[in-house]
């Protein structure tokens, strides 16, 4: 009798394991392939060889890249090189990426940037690093390291003031093994946190894996990408900085970072059509890239357009797409970066 019970329990455990593996494959879009959508005027950006995970562009055309991300389980083309911040002036006739010097005293050897956001101030072991860009010297002055118990696994931030920001925690745990266990079990413990020097609080929760985050041009709405749920959440921002969910846009891809066109309010998204290829890297079958443009997201039927798609032959693992004055920058988790004239 005891043996029969043991066999029965083993059978149930194996069935649950199989169900979880199948569910994870579906969430990673393991069987999806992409049809190429090419842009005619594109070239790879010289000097970016090992990832440009996030990009943010100032109104004056200065683009900032966070580069060199290393994450447990992901491939790296430069595993021994620390991360950095690059800048490109999109108003130049032939823009090129330049690495910015960071002020002395900052631990550059352990720098592993994941997500970047800029805020214009006319006055001036998961952490958020706050820098001041000194344009005259093309350098970064390190101002502050932000640590807090409500920020255990920060993925991305969107700045709403000097040292004020919303941040996504893509997991509840900071330990890599527990992160993957959390993902495997699909616990929906990820959240969005509002941080200021005077107050830190959870303002939205219940995400599968909260990833990219950005704010509408009128500062009324916060957009959050839930990468494993294949969704973009539209959250209304209130005067007390709390958020309430307004709507959810479902997509057929893993949505990573979100960029906003300040002139139109369109959302540009770097996506992973087949997320499993990110974690099981095969140079003969590399991760694909996909860029979506979302227009009128507040309407009943937003317009979703595939602007660019590639099977990995040119660009692998697109994580962000940012536009400025007819120019498009596409960054990746650990590969190259693309500059296009639209």
Descriptive overview:
Its cofactor is Ca(2+). InterPro entries: 6-blade_b-propeller_TolB-like (IPR011042), Arylesterase (IPR002640), Paraoxonase2 (IPR008364), Serum_paraoxonase/arylesterase (IPR051288). GO terms for molecular function: acyl-L-homoserine-lactone lactonohydrolase activity; arylesterase activity; metal ion binding. Belongs to the paraoxonase family. It catalyses: an N-acyl-L-homoserine lactone + H2O = an N-acyl-L-homoserine + H(+); a phenyl acetate + H2O = a phenol + acetate + H(+). The protein is mainly beta and 342 residues long. It has 2 domains: 31 residues; 302 residues, TolB, C-terminal domain (Neuraminidase, 6 Propeller). It is built from 3 helices and 23 strands. The strands form 6 sheets. A 4-stranded antiparallel beta sheet has the order 1-23-22-21, with no helix packed on it. A hairpin with a 2-residue loop joins strand 21 and strand 22. The termini are far apart. 37% of the residues are buried.
Form type: globular
CATH architecture annotation of the largest domain: 6 Propeller
Tally of alpha and pi helices:
3
β-strand amount:
35-45%
CATH topology assignment of the largest domain: Neuraminidase
Catalytic activity: an N-acyl-L-homoserine lactone + H2O = an N-acyl-L-homoserine + H(+); a phenyl acetate + H2O = a phenol + acetate + H(+)
Keywords: Calcium, Disulfide bond, Glycoprotein, Hydrolase, Membrane, Metal-binding, Signal
Pfam families: Arylesterase
Main location: membrane
